[in-house]
Structures are given as structure tokens and as C-alpha cells.
Write a structure and sequence with these properties.
The chain has one domain: Growth Hormone, Chain: A (Up-down Bundle). It is built from 15 helices and no strands. The radius of gyration is 20 Å and the shape is globular. The two termini are 13 Å apart. The model has no long low-confidence stretch (mean pLDDT 82).
């Protein structure tokens, strides 16, 4: 297996994205940690409000990116996130951190993300024409994100006690500035033709209909929904709640959360260097099994060090899964529907959280963090079952 050749401009954008992801990751941890101090229900609502606008507006966001182009939408989205973070810093300095401020901020971030994330998801496709290299390109982008988010939680745990939420928000402003400069300087070699009808009701419905009738796409979306519903709430909300239940500090909680990102970074680095495998269904099935093992270990972890090991295992499983699902999915998308297909992928990652996030808060309050995390692991195993029983995925001719 030879090392894939990827344009320098893409690598420059990937390197710059580390700063942006670091700022947003520190702010995300800070919001969740402050919200968890108000109780499980406030924490679950803050996380839910981060997701709800993306679910409600995600299909429109993908259509807008197909209409105006990914680069332009990313520039406007980054600028909007910079304004939101700056406003949060000013509001915290003036009024402190009441729950309503945290919820409003979460809703604003989710609204911007509804338009921003579909464009970011298809950006690698604008640099790489060779389908055999796309998996490595997407793995490099994912690795940069994982690197930043590995650093962000423990850094956020330290900074939230030193410079408060207002200072953490200003770090996100700096990250947005770095990304904005990069987007203005880096130009993808492949052009994305604007699709005028994409933003119409008919255009959005046609994207859904095409995805539904494309072989293998429905099964991929179902698997992503299952894994996202099992992992994301368990990590982002379950860890802070488990930390408070088990007496771990904010710094320890940040380190534990960083474990799943570090695990993803390790496996992502391998795929970024060597590329993904051709028989993608095998790692698609193995990934959720690894995730389930990590969640089960986290459920019984009495020490923070064991918890870090368990979340590292979770991160490895997630990236083994997504490094093969995401390139396969985007290669199945028609060139004129890249962002609309991407918005569907984001939608199925986030929609389950609207149900699971409140349930996590209720379940932890009722039975504790351990049983709740164990149940999340059982749910993750269903994704493996879907892959193993779907003939289209097992015989797919798409080479990632």
C-alpha cells in the first residue's frame, strides 16, 4: 500500500484547522462543565440545544452549500461563530453564567453549525479527484480535528478555573480568526458548480429521495445514527456527570474526555498515513464492537486512569468505523448533491441526541452513570449487526 499524494493546499488547511478546532473544543467543554454545575437537567438541555438547530435546519444548510459553494459558506459560518463567542465573553463578564445564557449560546452555536458543518464535510472532496486518495484525505482532516479535541478537554478543565468561561470564549474567537485567514488564502483546485435549485423545496426533497434510492446509503445512515446516539451523549454528557458522581475533578474529567479523542487520533493517524482498506465493511463492523467494549469498561471504572483507558478504546473504535463509513458515503453522493448528502449524514448523527441527551440526564439521576454507560455500549453493538446483515455493504464495489 503506497502513501497517498494529497495537494499541499489541503494539508495547509488541515494544519490551520487545528487552531479553530482547539478553540471550539475548549469552549464546548467549558459550556458543558459550567452547565453540569447547575445539575444534570441543565447540562442535558445545553447539549440538546447545541444539536436541535442543526437537526431542524441541517437539510437547508446542505442545500445552501450546494447553492453557494462550500468555501463561501465556511467563511460566513466561521465569521458568525466568532461573533457568537465574542458575545458570550461579553455577556459572562456582565451577568455571570446563568442557565439561560448557556442555553441561548448553545442554540446559537447549533444554528450556525447547521449551515457550516455540511460545507466542512465536503471540503476535502474539492481537493482530491482520485477516489482512492479521498479516504486518506478525510482521515487527515479528521486527525487534525482529533488532535485539537484531544488537547481541548484537559486544557478546558484547567482554563475554566483560571480565566472563567469568558476567557475560554475569547480563545474560541482567536481560533475562528485563524481559520478565517486560512479560508481566504487557500483555494481548492476543484470547483463546485453552483446548483440554483438546491435551495428550493423540490431541491431539498430530491436530495432525500436520491439518498433513499441509492444502494447502501440507507444502511450507512442507520449505522451512523446508532453509533452517534450511543457514543456522543455518553462521552460529552455522561463523563461530566459520572465525574461529579465519582468525585473526579474538572481537570480529571477533561483528561477522561480527551482519552476518546486521543484514541481516535492514534487510529486516525494510521489511516491518514496508509489510507483506508478496500473491504470497508469489516472495519465498519469491528468499530462498534470496540466502542461497546470501551463503554462497558468506562461503566465500571472506579479510577480516573482506568476511565482514560476506556475512553481511549472508545475513540479507537469510533475512528475505525467512521474512517471507512464517511469516504464510502461521500463517494456514493452525486457531484451536484455533495452538501445535501453531507447534511443528511450530519442529521443522522445529531437527531438521536435530541432523544438520548435528555434520557442520559434522567437515567443518570435514576440509576447512576455506570448502568447508563453500559446500556450505551449495548446500543452500539446494533450497528455491527446492521453491517453484518446488509449484503450491499458487504459486497460494495466502492473502494475507499
Amino acid at each position: 500500500m503506497s502513501r497517498p499524494q494529497i495537494p499541499r493546499g489541503f494539508n495547509a488547511w488541515v494544519a490551520t484547522s487545528v487552531g479553530s478546532e482547539l478553540g471550539s473544543g475548549v469552549l464546548a467543554f467549558g459550556l458543558t462543565w459550567i452547565a453540569s454545575g447547575h445539575g444534570p437537567q441543565v447540562a442535558s438541555w445545553v447539549l440538546t440545544l447545541t444539536v436541535a438547530p442543526s437537526v431542524a435546519l441541517g437539510l437547508l444548510g446542505g442545500a445552501v452549500a450546494d447553492r453557494f459553494g462550500a468555501s463561501r459558506v465556511m467563511i460566513f459560518g466561521t465569521s458568525a461563530l466568532m461573533i457568537v463567542s465574542g458575545g458570550l465573553a461579553a455577556a459572562v463578564a456582565a451577568w455571570g453564567t446563568p442557565p439561560v445564557l448557556l442555553m441561548v449560546t448553545a442554540a446559537l452555536i447549533g444554528t450556525v453549525a447547521a449551515f457550516h458543518r455540511p460545507a466542512v464535510g465536503v471540503f476535502p472532496r474539492l481537493f482530491v479527484a482520485d477516489s482512492s486518495v479521498l479516504g486518506a484525505a478525510m482521515a487527515r482532516a479528521g486527525m487534525a480535528s482529533q488532535l485539537a479535541r484531544t488537547i481541548a478537554p484537559p486544557l478546558g478543565g484547567l482554563l475554566i478555573g483560571m480565566i472563567a468561561l469568558s476567557g475560554v470564549a475569547l480563545i474560541d474567537v482567536l481560533g475562528c480568526v485563524i481559520m478565517l485567514v486560512a479560508l481566504l488564502l487557500v483555494h481548492p483546485p476543484l470547483k463546485q458548480a453552483p446548483v440554483a435549485e438546491a435551495v428550493t423545496f423540490r431541491g431539498m426533497v430530491s436530495g432525500i429521495a436520491t439518498a433513499r434510492t441509492t444502494r447502501g446509503v440507507s444502511a450507512l445512515l442507520l449505522c451512523v445514527a446508532i453509533v452517534a446516539g450511543a457514543v456522543i451523549p455518553a462521552v460529552l454528557l455522561g463523563i461530566p456527570l459520572a465525574a461529579r458522581e465519582r468525585g473526579w475533578t474538572a481537570a480529571e474529567a477533561g483528561l477522561i474526555e480527551a482519552g476518546w479523542i486521543a484514541g481516535g487520533l492514534l487510529s486516525g493517524a494510521w489511516f491518514a498515513w496508509r489510507g483506508t482498506v478496500s473491504k470497508a465493511w469489516r472495519p465498519m463492523a469491528a468499530g462498534p464492537m470496540i466502542v461497546a467494549a470501551g463503554l462497558g469498561l468506562l461503566a465500571v471504572s472506579a479510577s480516573s486512569l482506568l476511565a482514560v483507558a476506556s475512553t481511549t478504546l472508545i475513540g479507537i473504535g469510533v475512528v475505525v468505523f467512521t474512517a471507512h463509513v464517511f469516504p464510502t458515503y461521500i463517494l456514493l453522493a452525486p457531484p451536484t448533491m455533495l452538501s445535501r448528502f453531507q447534511s443528511l449524514l450530519i442529521l443522522v448523527q445529531q437527531a438521536p441526541q435530541l432523544i438520548v441527551n435528555p434520557l442520559i440526564g434522567l437515567a443518570v439521576a435514576a440509576v447512576g452513570a455506570g448502568p447508563t454507560l453500559a446500556m450505551s455500549g449495548v446500543i452500539a453493538l446494533v450497528a455491527s449487526l446492521v453491517v453484518l446483515t446488509d449484503r450491499t455493504l458487504r459486497t460494495s464495489a466502492v473502494d475507499t
